[in-house]
Every structure is written in structure tokens, then in C-alpha cells.
Design a protein that fits this description.
By secondary structure, the chain is α/β, with parallel strands linked by helices. It has a single domain, classed as Alpha/Beta hydrolase fold, catalytic domain (Rossmann fold, 3-Layer(aba) Sandwich). The chain is 41% helix and 17% strand. Strand 3, helix 1 and strand 4 form a beta-alpha-beta unit. Helix 2 packs across helix 3 and helix 6 crosses helix 7. Pfam families: Abhydrolase_6.
Length: 278
Amino acid sequence: METFDWRGRRIAWSRAGSGPAVVFCHGTPWSSWLWQPFAEALSDDFTVYLWDMPGYGRSSKEADHAVDFGVQAEAFQALLTHWGLDRPHVVAHDYGGAVSLRAHLVHGLPYASLLMADVVAIPPSGSPFFRLVKEHPDVLAQVPPYIHEALVRAYIGNAGFRQLREADLTALTAPWLGEAGQPAFYRQIAAYDESFLVENEDRLGRIDLPVRVLWGVEDTWIPQATGERLAAGIPGATFTPVPDAGHLIQLDAPVALATELRSWLTRVSPGLPGDAER
């Protein structure tokens, strides 16, 4: 994992493979770990980029650094410039949807295509626990570590349609433990501002690029109807429901997701085998 220094933050990122650029954006409370196997599977035909947003995963988690949608979109813009990318394909999950949309709609970043899976992108969003934390972030940040760990494990475990493997649950929980991780977990929820999502929805009609929206049919965090509304607001976008998958579509339906990713990226990447199918 390499790092990029931006406004005092340390952004962890990695790159692999060759071919058209594909950038993966994670959400909350996740990290690039969720996208790692999918990026590896595509690296024979694409140059894949993974990054942990500031305040997440292996990136820095300083208390005085803002982590809202606006800051993350600016960080994404700076990172694409650092990588020297122009018009990459973008794949987003959860919070990554709002970040990638804002970077495109507000900051004018051009993409070759955009695939969004179970994204936080338009209002409303947020589970009951998410809303509880947002109302009491300072109190919950002070609970004993063992209680905090139990809360985070229960919260993350609830995101999937299938019961998570212990190894996966441990990997997803780990960044939010310890002296830096625990307060960072509550801080990133407290920073949530739905006005960014309202602004996104107001601008959806301006999008002029290939867009695909995937949604786990069993997503209890953000219902399928929200995904359908998102796709309907984007000119030419297509919507695909994924059976037997919840919000953690990467772990619930990895084969279906991998198939959709490769099919989509092959179709929208000129010169790759399968492009003639467009």
C-alpha cells in the first residue's frame, strides 16, 4: 500500500494490472478491503486502483480532519490528479456513490463510466443505529472498548443478507478499534450531512456517461426503491437487482457481482474483447 499526502492527511492507496483505469470507491464503515478481490480479478485486463478515504481503513484518522462528503470528493479529485488519470471507470459502493457523484457533478471530474452498487447517493439513507450514533457521537465514543467492539461487530454484521464469516467480520471491524479507530468510527457518522445527497439528486439529470446501478434485493440499510429512483433520475442509466444480497453485496453475492463488473467494464471499454456487444 502506498500513501498520498493531502492537506495533512495520509491517504493509503494501491495500483495493479494494466489496461483501462478502474477506480474503486468504498463506503462507510468500510474500506478498500471489500473491493480487493474484485480488483485483483480484473487486473489482467484493467489497471485497478484502490484507496482508503481519509478517516477510513489504513488512511489517517486525525480528530481535527473533516471527513464529510465534500472533503472526500475533494480528496478523490486530488488523488486522480496525483495518479494522472483522465476519464477512468469508477466503481462505487455505499458512501462512495455520494463521493464519486459529487466529484463528477460539482468538481467536474470526467469518468468513462460509473457503476454504483447499493450506494448512499440520494436521500434518505442511514440505518436506525446510524441515526442514533449521529445524535450522540460524543457519548458513544466514550463507551468501554469491549462494548464499542460489540456494537461495531453487531452493526457490521447486520449489513449482510448472509451471516458473515468470522474472518470477514474481524477484518471489517479492525480499523475501528483502538485509540484512533474508536473515536474515528463515531466521528465519520457525526459528519454525515444529507444536504450533499439532496444536491446530488438535484443534478442527476446532468450526467452524460454510461451508468449502471446494482442493488441487493435484501438490502435493509437502503431499500431497493431508492436504487430504482437513483437510476431513474440519470439519463440512460440501467438498474439491476441482485437476488440474495443485502447491503454487503461484495460478500453476499460475490460471483454475481464479479460477473456484472466484468460484463459492464468490458462493454464500456473500447478495444477490449466483448466491446462489439455494445
